[in-house]
Every structure is written in structure tokens, then in C-alpha cells.
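Predict both folds.
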Amino acid sequence: MHPMLKPALRRAWRDLRSVQFGATSAHAVVVGPIDTTTGSLLGLLDGTRGMELLRAEARALGLRDEWLDELLGRLAEAGVLADASAGRPGRAGAVASPDDPLDPLRADLASLSVAHREPDGALRRVEARRAARVQVRGAGRVGAAIAAVLSASGVGRVDVLDSGSVRPWEVAPGGLPAEAVGDRRAAAAHRLVARSAPGGRPPRERRRRLPGEGGREPGLSLVVVAPRDGLAAYLPDPLPAEGWITTGTPHLYAGVLEATGVVGPLVLPGGTACARCAQEERTDRLPMWPRMLAQWRSGPPPEVPACDLGLATAVAGLAAAHALAFLDGASPASTGARWEVSLPLLEWRVERMRPHPACPCGAGRGREGEHASGVAAPHDTMAG
């Protein structure tokens, strides 16, 4: 191990005896009390020293090995310590070369090191992303951008499903490029995903599904439903989701409808409210709801959707971030909830989705997990 104070966390001395790691209240932590000798040792935790050299330098400062071990343990518990040698044998503390496969993800690794407290938490989550497989349903302004962000963030395989050809109003920065207009959406999205991957990679050959195979392909970690017609994300139809509920496949809805963006819910089958739960709950409150749904779903969608570029980009970014948080092992705020924002005020609002007791998904028969949101003040960790 080559101990290193996480460089992504800014440091500031609060007083002569304590140091705050991190400027934002969500991730800041205060370490103390720290004497002059401990302060000198903190300056040596830059990832260039292995444990033997670090012990020798600590002894030169008059510190016992046991004291050093205790200090490192408390710094690790506080979430401010990383292992510079993790994933890079023989190159601890070295700057990555341009051809290093991790180099395009260094900013992501830094972010993950802040969000997760373990010394090797960032690298482990990047490795987990590489093993993940995500299916994005929709290659419009929202879906294509989501797929590109997931691929660029290190997700090992991102499949995009859609039909038809790219239209001029579906082009977007970070999404389908102007030269894709007229091309088949699925093929254009496939190229976008390959081009967005860290370091770029040639497009993979698609595997054709064999007759009789089910709707869930092996290794599918998450489905992101981001249809070009935002109605299917804003008021999702339970029928397409039946296979995901049966196979236990997590799925997240995202889209734009009539200048309103929506992210969520993230459905964990059997644990949180699904599309049918939402439909049944709305029907309980509005008896005419099924009649209205039938008219909306059976009528032709507008040829050109009301999908503002800035709004679509914001929705795609938030949805991709929620998907990545889920793949990293967290429960993002869209778990069992829907976040909605509308032009022109762009004020995000949240609706908690309640499992319906009559829904066959089974979530209503258990206890739905509550998501607590808020900003925590920096907490104190004693060291030294």
C-alpha cells in the first residue's frame, strides 16, 4: 500500500489543531486534534512512499509504528485516505501515461474517491462498471446522450434499441451528430457509443437474439427507458415492463414530454413501485384516467416533439448520473421516485411513487425503502 490523502478533497486548517478535508458540506470531514508532528507526517502522505519507507520517516519524526498504523486507520475511516498503488503495480504515485486505459477516467476516479470512503473504492467501482451491461431504449436527444455518457463513464457494454432513421431535430451536442441524419438510429447510436468509450473502440458486432430467447439478455444490469416519444417515459406503459418485473431487471425511466422533463422512477422489481403501481394509484384517484391514457397512447405522437435542447441535455445528464450511481451500488434519489422539471422556470420537484397493494409486482406487499435526502454538515473525526 502507498497511502495518499485523497487529492480530490481540498484541505484547509480550521485552527492550529484540526484540518478539514473537503470544501462541500456533503463530503467534508474534520480531522483532529493534530499536533505539529502529525501535521508534518500528513505532508508525506502523497502516494510516493510504501509502508516501509513511511514507517522509517515516521520513526525519524519520533513516532512509533503502532501510532502510524492507528493514524492511517482513522484517516481511512474518515474517508480521506486512498491507496496510490491500487490498480497500478509498480507505478505508485506516478502520473498516468496517455495510453493508460484508466487515463480517460481519471476525473471519474477522483469523483468516485470523494463519493466513496474506502481507500480502493474508486477503482473497484470502475472495474464493476466495466463488467456492467446497460440497455438504453431510445436514441433521441435524451436516449442517445444517456448512452454516450454511460459509455464514456466506463460502462463495459451499452446497447441502444430504436427503429427508424435519424431526423434533423434529434441531433444534439453529446448525442447523435449532424452527419448521422438519415442513417438508421440504432446504427448511429451504436457508433456514438463506441466513439464515446474511454480511448474509443471499434463498434462491436451485434449479437442476434435466437428464436425462443427471452426478453432479458444475459448479464443485463439495467434498462434505461428513454423513448423519443416522452409519453412512454412520463406515463410509462406497464406492458413493456412485464418482462423486466418477471426477471427482476432494474429499469429507469427518463424523457421529455411537452417541455417537461422527467427522471425516474428507478424501479427495483418487487421492492419499489413499478409502472403498473403508478397507473393503478392514479386510477384510484381519477376514475377517468384509463380512458385518457387509452386516447393518449393510441393517438399519433407529434411529428416534432416539444423537446428543448437544454432541457433534454439536463434530463439526459441527470438520468445518466442516477444510472451510474445505481451501478456503483448506491440508491439514487430516483429509486421509487420521479423527478420532474418544466420550462420556463426549471424548478425540480419530486413525487414519491407508492407501491400499489393490488399490483402483481409484489412491491406493495413489502415495506418500501425510504430515501432520505439532505445536506449533512462536516462531521468530526479524531486522529492523533
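Second protein follows, with its predicted C-alpha cells after the sequence.
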Amino acid sequence: MKYTPHNYQEFATKQILDKPACALFLDLGMGKTVITLTAINELIHQTRRVLVIAPLRVAEDTWSKECEKWDHLKHLRVSKVLGPEKKRLEALKTKADIYIINRENVAWLVMHYGAKWPFDMVVIDELSSFKSSKSIRFKALRKVRPLIKWIVGLTGTPAPNGLLDLWPQMYLLDRGERLGKTLGGYRDRYFTPDQRNQEVIYSWKPKPNAEAAIYKKIADICVSMKAQDFLDMPDRINNYVRVTMSQKEKALYKQLEKDMLLPFKGGDIDATNAAVLSNKLLQMANGAVYDEFGAVRKIHRRKLNALEDLWESANGKPILIFYAFKHDRDRIKELFKNSRELKTSQDITEWNDGDIDVALAHPASAGHGLNLQAGGHIIIWYGIPWSLELYQQANGRLHRQGQNETVIVNHIVTDGTVDEDVISALDRKEAGQATLLRAVRARL
């Protein structure tokens, strides 16, 4: 297929060619893979080898398929450094232009090569997956960063939890030139303690005018593009379906919330800390919860009833359900006997062909690299995640260019529970990230 780029795609490719370190904050469906591959094709004679780091599903399919799809990229040789160690080593020995590895194996790759790092150019697909400076993958890539001549970061969600997420990502690009050499220094310059307990600080908030200062610092190497500015995007409707627990069910929820313990014959439900408690309360809001031995304790079926109503109101149109916990998936499968979890390429093909009426997916496994817009336009969030990145990426599977229908995103929310906190948190994160993206938006 002949590649005829949009003007924004030409602009983005030129950014990569002109700047040895840059980040493209591109919405889903804007062609970030072909944009980057086009730049790689131009630079290939200047590099020894190119490494692409991506989520596993994307590493398996997306990059190689894009090379096969476009005429000007078909000559590029791709080697997938995936699977067991023996297969990864064989892939590294294969002569290729581009080597693709999943992010979980970055530390292994760095350890394998050490100071003999052979990749002149590195592309990080989903740069925000390196947002933690404590992660093994960040520390590993940081070691070899001085040996990389060109580095490109791609993501649509650069600050999913706030501006503190930016420092590790920017450090991998410029080695601390813009936001400082250390996270502590960045934090001290631009943030002040927010929630704390004496000497223990739980969260930080930007100082006055800090946001504008941060955006100005990174604007020369970061470019943001929103799909609605350049593409014909489908409309989207957010729908919130509220359910209410009975007094007895509410009492159980409140008891666990207050005491961090809910006694059951044969196995208690207990929470050892606030994080575990939040997880247990999310499960209870969904209708079931794991006890101390891993058994499922069913509390209510309020969300299942709402899910059934939404399915009926779809009038036979396919629905895509995002679940949070395995017991959610199992109970939904029990309700819809013919439902199918989207796991394999064949599942995805059948969904897009209209052969699956009820599809299930976990946002962490379906959040990247899947084009599902041909199969339907109705999303139902049975369990809503705290992560803005997972939430936006999952919605983007259907809400993207090529979708011919208005996308309806249904959220089933249990009144008076942590579900409401999750919705509020996502709204705050989305507003903060939108400000960042506006600040570095491309002006073509």
C-alpha cells in the first residue's frame, strides 16, 4: 500500500529526524507507528541497529505488520526478541534493521550486552510505562542511555497520575537536561508536600506557576497532537449507570471499610493496609470479593443486573465489557454463556467480523495496539480502573478513526462506594493531563 501521509504525520516524522531526542504525545489512531518507521527508514543508513521497546501484544504484531503493509517500508527487516531466552538470543543473532522487544525484557537485554550495547536508536512505544524511576526497566535503560544516539518516546498519556510521572520519561530522553538529574531535585524545585503524616509525605502538589515552567522546559522536544484536531473522529457519549446495594449489603461494605476485616465462616476477608483495603472495596462494589484463602465470596449481583439491562438495551448490537478481577470475568461468563474473552488474534478477527456478540477484555491486556472499532461501538465498564492510561487506552480501542458509529461508553457505578472515588480521580487526572497536552500541542 502506498503511504500518503497527512500533514501532521509529515510534521511528526520531521521532529524525529531533526531531534536526536524527542517525544510524540499522539492520540490513538494517528499512525504513530508508521510515522516512526518512516523516520527510521530515513535514518537507517546512519544507525547500526534500531531497538523498539513495546508492550508484548504490540511487540508481537503491530510493528512488523506496519512494515509489511506500506510499500516504502517493506524492505525493512524485523527481528522479534520475544519468548524464551533461547529464542531471544537467536533473534538477536538474526541480521535485521529493527529489533523489537517487550518492555519486561529490557533489563535482561541490558544485562546481556552491558557496555557493548549495539543499538544506536531506541524507540519506546508507550513511554509512560517508564514513568517510575524505581522500576527495573527504567534503571536498566538509564544505564545504557549514554550509548544511544537517537531516542524516541511515543505515548498518548504522558502524565497519567500527575506531573511527577514526567521526570523519569524526560530523563530517558535528555538525561536530565531539562527537568534535572534527579527525581528529588525535580520534586523540590516544582512541588510542595500535599498529604502527609508528620514526616511521611504521601503526595505532592505543584507549586504556583510550576506547571507552566515545566511545560516550557520540555516544549522543544515534546509534541502533542489530538486526534480531533486532525482526523474525522466519531462522537462519544459517556453514560453512568448507578446501582444501589441493599442495606444488608451496604452494612457488609461499611464493616470492611471501617474494621478492615469481614468475618466469614471458612475464611475471612481482611485488609492488611490501605492499598489492599481499596482493592477489596472495589471488589465488593463489583459484587464479589476474595477471602484470605482465595475463595470468592459473593456479596451482591447489582452490577450483573445492570449489565444485563445494558445488553438488552443494545438490541442485539455487540458489546465490549471491560472487567477488573477474575471473579468478575467468571460471573459475567456465567451470565452470558456465549461471551468470548479477547485473547488471541483469531478472537480479535472474529470480533471485527461481527461474529462475537459479547466480548470480554481486561484493560491491561487490551489497552495497547488493538484495532477493535470494526466490531462494535458499545463499551461497558464493569470494573473501572484507577489508571487513566488504562482507561483511555481501552476506550481508544473503539473510539478511533475508522469507527462509523457514535461510541457509547457505559460505566456501572455502585453508589456510596470507592467506585465514585475512582470516577472523580480519573476526571482530575484527565484534566491535568489535558493541560500538559495543550501546552506542548503542535502548531502546524
